[in-house]
Write a structure and sequence with these properties.
alpha+beta, 21% strand, Thioredoxin_domain, three-stranded antiparallel sheet
């Protein structure tokens, strides 16, 4: 299947609340992941080669964002019954292997992915402190090869935290499609 691209940011979209189970067996809501300068919601999974290629970079960027008071959460909305590598138990392994210091949540009903109109894994959504979508795009320009020259997500969220605007071209994230349940 060819890779998909994330959709352009929908100006005026406010983050929708959720209550999802983390790999640490605790529930998280939007208020639990907000940073004083904004937050990022990333839709990822365990089996996608695009996510695998950047997982350690996701972890590093989440830590860098935390230092500027930007919260970070990752959500796995894939159909884990059809794609067992994306199961809850495998999420724990994937997070440990990639040094995730942020909450990694399961969206077993896929309702949160639907509300956010997540398209691919990875799909990054950056919100300001009021919950307004300011960025939807790629993590960086490194792609699967890892040669990073521009840290798009970090730079965008740094701008959002400083002056509530992103003033550079936004490129879509590219990855595997969200694996929707057959009855969805």
């Amino acid at each position: 299947m060819p890779p998909l691209s994330s959709l352009p940011a929908e100006i005026g979209f406010y983050a929708e609340d959720f209550r999802l189970l983390s790999i640490n067996n605790t529930y998280f809501s939007l208020d639990d992941i907000r940073g004083s300068n904004g937050f990022v919601i990333a839709f990822i999974c365990n089996h996608c080669p695009y996510v695998k290629a950047i997982a350690k970079r996701i972890s590093s960027e989440a830590e860098a964002l935390a230092r500027i008071n930007i919260g970070f959460v990752a959500i796995n909305s894939n159909d884990y019954e059809s794609y067992p590598e994306d199961s809850f138990d495998n999420m724990k392994i994937f997070a440990k292997d990639n040094n995730f210091s942020f909450p990694y949540l399961i969206d077993s009903t896929q309702s949160i992915a639907e509300v956010y109109q997540a398209v691919c894994t990875p799909d990054f959504f950056g919100f300001n402190s009021k919950g307004l979508l300011m960025y939807r795009g790629r993590l960086d320009d490194g792609g699967k090869n890892g040669e990073v020259k521009k840290r798009d997500l970090y730079e965008a969220m740094k701008m959002v935290s400083n002056n509530n605007i992103v003033n550079f071209d936004i490129y879509p994230s590219i990855g595997c499609s969200i694996k929707w349940k057959k009855n969805s």
